[in-house]
From TrEMBL:
Pfam families in the record: Acetyltransf_3
SUPFAM superfamilies: Acyl-CoA N-acyltransferases (Nat)
Protein name: GNAT family N-acetyltransferase
Domain N-acetyltransferase: 19-188
A molecular function (GO) term: acyltransferase activity, transferring groups other than amino-acyl groups
Species per Swiss-Prot/TrEMBL record: Streptomyces montanisoli
């Protein structure tokens, strides 16, 4: 019996012209933790609803490890969070997540991501989001994909616009003890087809389908 028999997600790979996305191994996790410790956004603003970055560098690093371990341990086909390490030329640059509840019924996913600060403004955010959208729509048969960003997060909102998302309402949250407006965005399968421009390859998906509640 092999690891892939018990945990086929370890064999899942997404590739784009510049990136590889995969379930992180222990070395990848260590690199992700180090990236988080160095910072993933301008500390003057808080782009996340859960302010996990408003702590010390060591605490940020530890939270990354614990979050990935928690998602692995809590995985159920009715409620899953797939968080992939994003590598460029073999170097971990960030992480891209895709989550769903009752996917076999709702056919809807949510996405979230971050990049190390030295890897911002290079178009990588668009490429890695395009990779998991391809997984969702072409690989898993999703009908909708959801994203959200605060009004000041121009980079995330820009990625969504490029990929064809449309406005889907707002939410108000307390961010650093002040009100913040979160803009929800929705992408349908039809609009994904119209706006797809990044070639994406998928390896190792068939054995993973039951883990996503399919097959």
């Amino acid at each position: 019996m092999t690891l892939l028999t018990q945990w086929p997600l370890a064999g899942l790979r997404l590739t784009t012209p510049r990136l590889e996305l995969r379930l992180p191994n222990p070395e990848d996790l260590a690199d992700l933790a180090a990236l988080a410790a160095d910072g993933v956004h301008d500390p003057a603003v808080q782009p996340f609803t859960v302010a996990w970055t408003d702590v010390t560098p060591d605490e940020r690093a530890q939270s990354v490890l614990q979050y990935h371990w928690r998602c692995w341990g809590a995985w159920r086909k009715e409620d899953w969070e797939l968080n992939l390490a994003v590598l460029r030329d073999g170097v971990v640059v960030g992480t891209q997540g895709i989550t769903a509840r009752d996917f076999s019924v709702l056919r809807e996913v949510c996405t979230g991501s971050w990049l190390g600060r030295t890897h911002h403004h290079q178009g990588l955010g668009t490429e890695m989001r395009a990779a998991v959208l391809h997984l969702a729509f072409a690989g898993l048969g999703a009908q909708h994909a959801i994203s959200a960003a605060y009004t000041h997060n121009a980079a995330s909102l820009g990625v969504s616009r490029k990929l064809g998302y449309q406005e889907d309402g707002i939410e108000r949250h307390s961010v650093r003890a002040r009100p913040g407006v979160l803009r929800r965005l929705r992408l349908t399968a039809e609009r994904w087809q119209q706006h797809r421009a990044v070639p994406v390859g998928i390896e190792g998906l068939p054995g993973c389908l039951p883990w996503f509640g399919l097959g």
